[in-house]
């Protein structure tokens, strides 16, 4: 299978924040996109999210060829390498937190997506940043939120209609930097032609409903305009947080 992908990403401080604690990285030669959201309210969240992007960049540039077989059919090797890279970023953040008052408790979420040459997508997630897949004009969240709301919804303790009455909705139950080890959720999905993947921080997903996100995607021309329009939609809805969006367009032949 011949798989090609195009990746576009951008970030915006939003309308109510003075500092952007989000970071992203696009590694085109590895068909990889990473989005990280430094935890709001924590000192130096931007440092934590930058450690993620720098660690991933370093490991893929220097170690990927050694750790991952040239045989692209070995999807599990690629999946493991992505998870281990995020785990290494977690350890670096945790170490930096120790004994440095100005950096104590800094943390970050992360989502990552890699497209393989043999027709798969690999997703990785820690926290409440998200990855959506748009296929056949329908949108589906393909990562699970590690948040209080996500846990309550998964266990049927509350329902979507109850969310407007819930306080402390932004409590995260898993993030990088909070412990020496972290569990990284990874999944492998079979690709279809024209799949479009959207990676975003909660600066978009908290303010723009899934159906509205889909509407922007379907009505926009080109990936760059789509990213810009999604950021504009979040700002028009209040822009209460930093906003980072990455789009990965896949073509399979």
UniProtKB/TrEMBL annotation:
InterPro entries associated with the record: PP2C (IPR015655), PPM-type-like_dom_sf (IPR036457), PPM-type_phosphatase-like_dom (IPR001932)
Domain of life: Bacteria
Organism: Uabimicrobium amorphum
A GO molecular-function annotation: protein serine/threonine phosphatase activity
Name of the featured protein: Protein phosphatase
CDD domains per record: PP2Cc
Domain PPM-type phosphatase: 6-250
PROSITE patterns: PPM_2
């Amino acid at each position: 299978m011949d798989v090609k992908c195009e990746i576009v990403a951008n970030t915006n401080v939003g309308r109510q924040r003075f500092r952007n604690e989000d970071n992203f990285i696009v590694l085109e030669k590895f068909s990889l996109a990473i989005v990280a959201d430094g935890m709001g309210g924590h000192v130096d969240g931007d440092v934590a999210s930058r450690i993620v992007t720098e660690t991933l960049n370093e490991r893929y540039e220097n170690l990927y060829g050694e750790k991952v077989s040239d045989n692209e059919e070995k999807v599990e090797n690629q999946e493991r390498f992505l998870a281990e890279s995020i785990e290494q970023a977690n350890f670096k953040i945790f170490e930096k937190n120790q004994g440095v008052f100005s950096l104590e408790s800094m943390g970050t979420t992360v989502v990552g997506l890699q497209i393989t040459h043999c027709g798969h997508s690999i997703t990785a997630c820690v926290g409440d940043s998200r990855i959506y897949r748009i296929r056949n004009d329908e949108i589906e969240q393909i990562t699970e939120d590690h948040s209080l709301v996500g846990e309550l919804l998964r266990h049927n303790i509350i329902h979507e209609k109850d969310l407007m009455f819930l306080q402390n909705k932004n409590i995260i139950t898993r993030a990088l930097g909070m412990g020496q080890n972290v569990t990284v959720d990874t999944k492998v999905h079979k690709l279809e032609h024209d799949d479009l993947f959207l990676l975003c921080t909660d600066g978009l997903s908290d303010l723009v409903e899934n159906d509205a996100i889909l509407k922007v995607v379907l009505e926009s021309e080109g990936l760059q305009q789509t990213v810009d329009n999604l950021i504009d939609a979040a700002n028009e809805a209040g822009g209460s947080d930093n906003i980072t969006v990455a789009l990965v367009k896949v073509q399979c032949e």
